[in-house]
Amino acid sequence: MQKSLLILTLIFVAGLDLPTLAQGRIYQQSAYAPTTSMILESKTIYSFTWNTQGAQPRVIEQTKDRVIGLTPRQTLYRYKFYDQHSKIIEATCINSEGKAKKMEEVLCGNRNIQGIFYSDAQICRYPLEFTKAGETLTLNTTKHYNDVKYLTSIYFHEDLPISTKYISFVIPNWMEVELKEFNFETFDIKRTKEYLPDKQAHVYTYQINNLVAFAQEAFMPGSSHVYPHILVLAKSFVKNNQRQTLLASTDDLYAWYANLANQVDNQANNLKPLLNNILHGKQSDLAKIKAIYYWVQDNIRYIAFEDGIAGFKPQSAQKVFKQKYGDCKGMANLTKTLLRLAGYDARLTWIGTNHLAYDYSIPSLAVDNHMVCTVLHQDKRYILDATEKYNAFGDYAERIQGRPILIENGKKYILDKVPVLGNTRNLVIQKQLVKIEGEQLTGRGNLELSGENKQMLLYYLHKTPKIHRENFIKGIISSRNENFEVLASKISNIDNREQPFDIDYRFKNPAQVTRFNNEIYLDIDYSKEYKSALIDTNRLSYVKFPEKVLNLSSIVLEIPKGYKIKHLPANMEFMHEKFSFRIKFEANQNKLVYVKEIVVGDGIIPRSCFKQWNDCIIKLNKIYEDRVVLVKE
Amino acid sequence: MKKIRLFILSTLCIITYPSVAQQLSPAAQEVRNEIWGVSDTDFSATAVPEKWNQESAVILGRSFRFEYGLKRGLREIYKRIYLRERVKLVDKAAVEEYSEFKFQQIDKTWGEKLYFGIKVIKTDGTEKVIPLSESVKMQTQQGNNTSYYQKLAIPDLVPGDIIDYYIFSKQLLSATTTSSLPPRTIPLMSTYPIVRQKIVLAIDPYIYLNARAYNQAPDFLYDEEEDLYILRDGNREKLEAPQWFYENRSVPILKFQVFFKEIAFTGKKGKANFAIKKANMLKFAAEFPAKDKTVTSFYKQFRAYLKARKKHKLSNEEKLKEAYYFFRHQYQITTLEKILSLQKLDMKQLKLEKDFIKIMGYLLTKYKIDYEIVVAVSRKTASLDDWIIPEDLAILLKVNGSTHHFLQNPVFYDFYGEIRPELQGVEGYAIQVNSTPKTVRKIRLPRLGHQYHSSVTHTEVWMNEGMNTWKVKQTVTLKGGTRESYQTFLNDPYEMIRESTLRYDKTEAGKGKVNEVIQQRLAEKRDETFKASLKNEFDVSVLALKQLRVLENGIWDNQPTLKYESEFVLGGIAQKIGSSYIIEAGKLIGKQVDMKTLKKKRIFDIYMAHPRSYKHEITIHLPDGYQVQGLDKLKKELKNQTGGFVSNAQLSGAVLKIQTYKYYSHGYEPLKQWGKMKDFLKVAYQFTQQKLLLKKK
């Protein structure tokens, strides 16, 4: 299991686009470059063979990709990956006449992965040089997986469109392998099975035609939820009439994980002075647990390492403490060690974030990608993810909510799930009291953020140089609307993760008010959340927002003396089982009250609801474009 | 992550590399002792001056040292340089910034040596040297060559800590193949404020050094005892680059270059030369006029061309112009194809500026037209008096024929007689190369005003009934500096090659084969980019681009304007309110300098590319049955010394006409004029925010 924390990539994708500030979001299929080449035929064969040297099974992967260049004089780079457990043995390029063509400038080396400090993932780049349009070149490669448990998921899609793709598995009778299929439903994938008597092996072949290139779409769930793929579960083998298990069940997976975790030499006593310091003045058990959790969150920098076995084995607690940095395993292990030292029952806990579509019924290294710590206290389980900066005790980040967990428990593990929290966790409340002064709107406002939004905001706020924080907050309030001028602002709870993040402000905005003769045209809602949220119905994946959405806004306008309301935009109530938008204008004596409520209950818009969603957004935009018109009495 | 690549000049390829040393080699240790071992008062500070305690980080001390010399019987050049920086990390953002380092540590017995060292000084004064053995190696292999760098995560780093690091490089180069090293520029301002800094330059008696610190930078002092030059500086605010800013002109800066052989612009051997003077010009002028192989071969080809095209009877001045375009065709236009298809430029196919001067100088003499050679420096780089790096020069010819004009080595679409904007209005040295003795005088190159660098846009708009889509037809005419970027973007290079070939190839038939795939791809890309620019300009959705056509390409002196026509459909400029519509008419002049820029405090002078003007004539065909309110909001006027914005609007029947004129009087304004500039820029911005109301009659 390569433990990689996804928070960084997640935040990069989500950027500062808090749902409250969702202007300009376009949930479309990612733009792709015009096709200059495609794979006519791709064949990959995975053969399980016996490796006499290592005295264990291995997999030989042979690929044959016939690629056509659609424009002349182009170099197309093809990439192949390897690591400590696998090796590229051979790579050759064959021209259309069947002759070998030398590949100039083959580059191999460490792969830079965003958000990961160091990984043993290696990459080779093979140049296919096309001189003429319509020329075909075939790249043949052979790769060995010396330990079969590291061959996990196999996808059909590639970075190029594919006309026909075959994936075959040659599984000898002595090898027990399960091929688990994912996301096959919406794709036309043909399966065949044949027996090779001479090899005493079965060949399973999958065929798929006309695949578009792999694309990263906005608000897309992890690839394993969307793209068709096969998980290879190498369970056991029989050699010399002896059956040897590999990863046949969750028990085997746990045994391997636990074995690695037990090898960690935690010298807890070295941490005593630190612990005394952390617990100073803390009386209750929960206060103590909380203090330890927050200390690790605040003082250990997250740095991801994925280096061979170190990708699965935590660093010792004392090392992480000394370095003041670590990956999720190191942070979970330090949390556990401190808690145990303080007398609590804390356990390492394996988990796959919601990026992954798997659970612990599958014995594979692909099922998890993260580690947390669980405290068992007075018949309750508290899951502590110290990589989640500014996460309150008892709160759970969206990416781990509802996810299965594997808790260490001596020889046998405990299976459980992280609790699911509703959208009220992510409540965003915007309030404004406004009036018209001359040709501008002025007023006071308050913005309150909770849950995922608060956490993301605090993460970025603390990353922003102090000197730029005020501007950062202004940007949040104004939705980066350049005419919206924040005159003063005050923030609360910047260092209190247990309370909502709160901003009070005063503002003026000339762009919201236009006077024509004896009429005033007012654009009352400057933030216009979800204005550009039309979904491209051709996209491949459903839409998954970074969080479950619950946004409430209210704006109270003081109607200027001598004016009355001439026109109001329509009210709106769009109710759907997956989402709802409600907007209401209500005049009350000399006040106009505007209320807006946006709900996306589980943060997901399934493909089947795209049309209704778009209908709703079109309706919403009609209201956003309309104006409140006041006329002189 | 801090990327320590400052001194890496050589290729990253290394043949053998011993795994990261746990212990420093004696050579690396010696360097460490030299940099960290001796107490240096410039690196003793631990506290941040109060005025900077809200900054993210503060550079307490910074030191550069550059040493150059010759060795082994003058056969080898050695260079030995290092940077040391001591940074106080005030907040978490700074901790993040300095928590990971990328560096190279190369400790070989030959070639380049690179050393790196880093320590953390805690608030209680304890120092922790970070072992480099904790770093990870990122490696790339190509054939037998392996290149790599190292990444180091700094442990136990918190706000309040001080990072003290150095990078050191030592290299030996062959003196027979190296005549100079690339120039270096060191701005005295950085991402963070600087408390103290020093730059040391040490050369041995065989080296030539050109160095100058300018833009209010302190001067170098010569330390006789140590035989080195030292520049001491400090108390510098952090650098935040604003709009309209040339770092080379505004930021206190040091530039230097070392030479191992004398050239026209160097001073005394073994001594620093702090200014290039008239005397250097005379030395430089010795190269001209010249009749070398390049000149004679060009002349031969040109004569053949004149003969083949029956142009040998043209007047001398006409022939000169022919020679210019013949030169541009041979060495610039025909390279376009290669750039397009291969995405690389064959330097051999290009001619140097000097070659152009020699060739044209030869022809001018031949055609008995008086001329001078003019040496000037781009206004983006330095004033003439601050010019110290020889290669920054631009050479032009001042033709004193029946008309006076300048000639400059053409780049792609430059045309005869036009000086590129960055040289307009700058000072230069004019050298009479044909007189004996040669003479030098200072002149100012012509300055062209905002009327010359102009953009004129005619826009005609038709609205559909629901007013939600607008059909727009635009004709844009660009002249002078405003056309340059649009020219490379809009002109079909194959069309340019064809046009130039017809006129200036040896035979009309000439080359000019079109690669249709590339041509098609360029056209698609052009349309895509144009659409994106429309979206950006009008800040609304672009529903369709129906036409984009270049009417005049602006690559000839008798057709100096780039004129293009486009037709497109915009959505979302009008909003329906009951039975009325609000239209955002002001948006039709495109994006203006935004309020964020205008509100920002400015501390630097304003350097723009050139003076310029933008004229818009907009005609909107309104649907029948509506009356317009708010026309007065579109009438604005503000003019001052720095520029102005004037607009007007009239309604005639169902046709609304809007005119705007915005101009920037100069390409440069001193900081004190910023307020005046902001005045008219604000008016232009306000114009874009104006809306009209269409009310049912």
Structure description:
The complex is a heterodimer of chains A (633) and B (697). With 633 residues, chain A is an alpha+beta fold. Chain A contains ten helices and 38 strands. The N and C termini of chain A lie far apart (72 Å). By secondary structure, chain B is an alpha+beta fold. Chain B has three domains: 263 residues, Immunoglobulin-like; 160 residues, no CATH class; 225 residues. Chain B has 13 helices and 36 strands. Chain B has an eight-stranded mixed beta sheet with strand order 7-6-10-4-3-12-15-14. In chain B, strand 21 and strand 22 form a beta hairpin. Classes of the chains: A alpha+beta (633), B alpha+beta (697). At the A-B interface, strand 6 of A face helix 2, strand 8, helix 11 and strand 27 of B.
What is the count of structural domains of chain A?
Answer: 3
State the shape of chain A. globular
Give me the secondary-structure category of chain A.
alpha+beta
Query: Largest chain-chain contact?
Result: A-B, 42 and 47 residues
Shape of chain B: globular
- Oligomeric form of this entry? heterodimer
CATH class descriptor of the largest domain in chain B = Mainly Beta
Overall number of strands of chain B = 36
Largest sheet of chain B: 8 strands, mixed
CATH topology name of the largest domain in chain A: Jelly Rolls
The CATH class label of the largest domain in chain A is Mainly Beta
Strand order of the largest sheet of chain B: 7-6-10-4-3-12-15-14
SSE layout and pairings?
The complex is a heterodimer of chains A (633) and B (697).
Chain A (H helix, E strand, L loop, with lengths): L6 H8 L22 E15 L4 E14 L4 E9 L3 E9 L5 E2 L5 E4 L7 E2 L2 E9 L5 E10 L7 E3 L6 E11 L2 E8 L6 E8 L4 E11 L11 H4 L2 E11 L2 E4 L4 H13 L9 H8 L5 H15 L1 E2 L2 E2 L10 H7 L1 E2 L1 H14 L3 E7 L18 E8 L2 E5 L19 E4 L6 E4 L9 E11 L2 E10 L1 H13 L5 H10 L6 E8 L8 E9 L3 E4 L2 E4 L20 E2 L4 E10 L4 E5 L4 E4 L3 E10 L2 E10 L3 E2 L4 H16 L2 E5 L1
Parallel strand pairs in A: 1-11, 7-18, 17-19, 25-32
Antiparallel strand pairs in A: 1-2, 2-9, 3-8, 4-5, 4-9, 6-8, 10-15, 11-14, 12-15, 13-14, 15-16, 20-21, 20-23, 21-22, 23-24, 25-26, 26-28, 27-28, 29-30, 30-38, 31-37, 32-36, 33-38, 34-35, 35-36
Chain B lengths: L1 E2 L9 E2 L11 H12 L19 E15 L4 E14 L2 H6 L2 E4 L9 E9 L5 E3 L6 E7 L2 E9 L8 E13 L9 E4 L6 E10 L4 E7 L6 E3 L4 E9 L10 H4 L2 E7 L12 E2 L4 H8 L7 H16 L7 H18 L1 H8 L10 H14 L4 E7 L15 E8 L3 E5 L18 E6 L6 E6 L9 E10 L5 E10 L5 H7 L2 H12 L11 H23 L2 E13 L8 E10 L2 E4 L2 E4 L11 H5 L6 E2 L4 E10 L4 E4 L6 E5 L2 E10 L2 E10 L3 E2 L4 H15 L3 E5 L1
Parallel strand pairs in B: 1-5, 3-12, 13-17, 23-30
Antiparallel strand pairs in B: 2-9, 3-4, 4-10, 5-9, 6-7, 6-10, 8-9, 11-16, 12-15, 13-16, 14-15, 18-19, 18-21, 19-20, 21-22, 23-24, 24-26, 25-26, 27-28, 28-36, 29-35, 30-34, 31-36, 32-33, 33-34
Helix pairs in contact in B: 5-8, 6-8, 6-10
